[in-house]
Each structure stands twice: as structure tokens, then as C-alpha cells.
Amino acid sequence: MFIGKYNKSLIVTYIGVAFAIIGMYFAFASEAKYSMICLVLAGICDLFDGKIARMCKRTKDEISFGIQLDSLADTIDFVAFPVVFGLSLGLNSWYHIVGYILLAMAGVQRLAHFNVLVGSKEGDAPVKFYSGLPVTSTSVTFPLIWLLSGLMGTGVYHIVYICLVYLTAFLFVANIKIPKFKGIAYPILAVVAIAGIIALFLV
Length: 203
What we know:
two-stranded antiparallel sheet
């Protein structure tokens, strides 16, 4: 009846996309706190969706579909989301727009590189190193600077935000190797993320 694959291994990825869309809604509803919380939640979903998927029984086609779906979801969750949030803040001068364009182009470039890298391996075996800064990093950096925005003041925060956009775009495609989290790092990151959500709620 419908195109695509509908394996239970994809549920967490779809939940992450839902959080991103809800977060964009909150951004334009001037609820920045809840928007940033949604970005963190999308990051948590991305942190565990691969591990959960590998625990599920899947066909080769379902594995390939999951790899592509994950990157497409990441484009919405961690590339489009910061752009939408910036626009919701009124950061829409020409140099803001240029930054958003660079962030989007660099983000999809990095994700395409990752897909080619994974596609050259057997199945969807996890890689040991990231090439460039993972796009998921925006679920940490952008909520963090928003958390500190009260100490900066609105004007300074807006400057820091667009500087982070440009820096992130550069790091997405920089030829650097970043070790991928594994083992005990996952529960530690989950605890840190939960602590971040609590901090955002309390602001």
C-alpha cells in the first residue's frame, strides 16, 4: 500500500524527526526553551537509534533503507533545525542567510560522505571514526549556548549564535578524524543529556 520499509528498527529515528518538527513549532511560537529541549531529545534518539536498529532482525534492503533514512532524518533534526531556530530569533540579515546556506551545504556534504563510507563496508557495521564533526553535535552546542544566553545578553547571544553556525559549517567538512562514542560512553552521554534537559527546564 505504501512505499518504503516499515521495520520496527526505524521507530526511534522517526521519533527523533517528530521531536525536531515539534521543536521548530516551539521556535516560531517563541518558546525557545521547549524548542531546545526538543533538539536535545532528537539528539538522544539519534544516539541510540543505530544501536537499537542493530538489535533488530532486518533484511539487507531494510539495512540499506535504514542507513539512508537516518541521514535524511539527521538533515531535518540537526541541520534544518538550527537554521529554523536562528530565523525564529529574527537573525535574517544577509550574513545570517549566508551562514545558514553554508551550514546546510556542509551538513548534507558530510552526511553524503558518511553514507558512501558506510556503503563501502559490509552491511551497516559501525565506523570507528567520524570524518568531520557529526551533525548530531548541534543537539549539544546550540542548546548549550542558549542555556548560557541569560549570562550573555540578547545582543551577544545573537552574535555567538551566528558565529557558531559558521564554525559548525566549517567543522562539518573539515578533514579531521573524531573518535566515535562506544561502550560506556552511551549511558554517560544519556545522563548528561538528561541533566541538560533538566537545566533547560529550570532556566
